[in-house]
Design brief:
single chain; 453 residues; alpha+beta; Outer membrane efflux proteins (OEP); 4-stranded antiparallel beta sheet; two-stranded antiparallel ribbon; 68% helix
Length: 453
């Protein structure tokens, strides 16, 4: 196949593929980029990973703790116990020596025993294994729920980010459409100034007609500059959401076909309540409050540990069988009274549960209201598009007729400019209506939790 034929086929394919599909593909690519690079989303994901590590830390408390401990102590002074063994035994020994006519029982001195040995060392391995500890158990349960809370928080932000990227894209599309439309309109006004200048040169019209058309062009240039500024700001915000350089160019392909509200007839309030992350987060927070109640109620139970020591100790730093020792202990700790502290903690946890239940009920009503508002907004926007299209058709025909009469000298410049201004406003109104509808649909997707991310 020849290169020219291949180019022709590619051109035909590009023409036949609906512009709306290409535009949606481009927007989908931007959304994927935003979900990958958005800085705020990365922070949320980091917080979620942090909660996972906290869960692993909590679960690690179930395992034994093995540590190595070494101590060498040099002491001087301290308490001393005097043992008068010489005073007690020397008279007996003297008597025995006299009876046996020997010196088999020598005299001994009184003894002093110090509590602190001058030199002492202890080197050991210690193993501690929790056997029964309610704090460790419920702490692990709570950390697990916090991990689920963190995942829901990430998903919520992802859903909101998708909606925000779509609305920013449609806002940029609107700004670009208005700017392009005004540029085309300026060509008409510039041509009018050129024609009026020629007419003045040929003494066909007075100079006030030229001044009026030039003044109208100057005023229009101000509107054009404002539209350009809005386009730059909209592009910068869109790039900000995608974490790209603010001045990067954006491919704008507004969809030609629009989703119709009549296609969405399900119970979207129920869908939102089933899928919205806010409900899931409050449900998990309620579970955490319940676990806190149980943890504090179990505070009346004892904690039990096993401790095993193996090592060496003595007055000299030697490792031999004489210095070797092993020791095992079962440790029971039971807090019998702490000034009613635990009772207050139980009450606080129950109050937290009541607060969560109230917040959950309020959130459900707010979501129902959001769904109702967004659907009404879409209905209004959908009707606004039809009204704007009708207005534009009338304004376009009115301008065509006025321009024709103006060229024939049957309409004044004021009528011509007024008709052109009405057409410009009608074109702008249609652009705004379409983008407003798309933005309201993006909000509808987010509120009802049907958008993909």
């Amino acid at each position: 196949m020849k290169t020219r034929d291949m180019k022709s086929i590619l051109f035909i394919i590009l023409v036949l593929v609906p512009a709306g599909i290409r535009g949606q593909d481009i927007l989908d690519e931007y959304i994927k980029s935003g979900l990958t690079n958005n800085l705020a989303l990365k922070q949320k994901e980091s917080e979620y990973r942090l909660s996972i590590e906290a869960l692993r830390e909590a679960r690690a408390l179930f395992y034994p703790d093995l540590s190595f401990n070494a101590r060498y102590t040099v002491s001087d002074g301290g308490r001393v116990i005097n043992l008068p063994v010489g005073d007690l035994l020397n008279p007996v020994y003297s008597t025995l020596n006299a009876l046996t006519s020997s010196h088999n029982f020598p005299a001994i001195e009184n003894q002093q025993i110090r509590f602190l040995r001058p030199h002492e060392h202890e080197t050991k391995l210690r193993l501690i294994q929790p056997v029964f500890n309610t704090d460790i158990y419920y702490n692990s349960k709570i950390k697990k729920e916090m991990t689920g809370y963190g995942q829901a928080d990430v998903n919520q932000y992802r859903r909101e980010l998708v909606s925000e990227i779509k609305k920013a894209y449609y806002n940029l599309s609107m700004a670009d459409g208005i700017y392009s439309m005004l540029q085309e309109t300026r060509k008409v006004l510039s041509e009018n100034v050129r024609v009026n200048r020629r007419l003045v040169e040929n003494d066909k019209v007075t100079r006030d007609v030229l001044y009026r058309s030039e003044a109208e062009l100057g005023k229009f240039d101000q509107d054009l500059q404002e539209a350009e500024k809005q386009k730059v700001v909209a592009a910068a915000y869109f790039n900000f959401l995608l974490n790209r350089p603010l001045t990067d160019s954006v491919i704008i392909k507004p969809p030609v076909t629009f989703p119709r509200l009549s296609d969405y007839t399900g119970d979207y309030t129920a869908t939102a309540l089933a899928n919205r992350e806010e409900i899931k987060k409050l449900g998990q927070y309620g579970t955490i409050a319940d676990l806190n109640v149980k943890r504090n109620q179990s505070g009346v139970l004892p904690d039990m540990f096993l401790a095993i020591d193996y090592g060496y100790q003595g007055e000299t730093y030697e490792f031999n069988r004489e210095a070797e020792y092993a020791q095992a202990s079962a440790i029971l700790k039971w807090n019998l009274f702490k000034g009613f502290e635990n009772r207050s903690k139980i009450r606080q946890a129950r109050i937290d549960r009541e607060i969560v239940e109230s917040e959950l009920e309020e959130a459900k009503k707010q979501i129902g209201l959001q769904v109702l508002n967004t659907m009404n907004e879409m209905k209004t926007s959908e009707k606004g598009i039809a009204a704007a299209e009708s207005t534009l058709a009338n304004a376009r025909e009115a301008f065509r007729l006025t321009a024709k009469r103006y060229d024939q000298g049957q309409a004044s410049l004021l009528e011509y400019l007024d008709a052109r201004s009405t057409l410009t406003r009608a074109e702008e109104s249609l652009i705004i209506s379409k983008c407003r509808y798309l933005s309201s649909f993006a909000e509808f997707e987010k509120v009802t939790a049907v958008n993909k991310y």
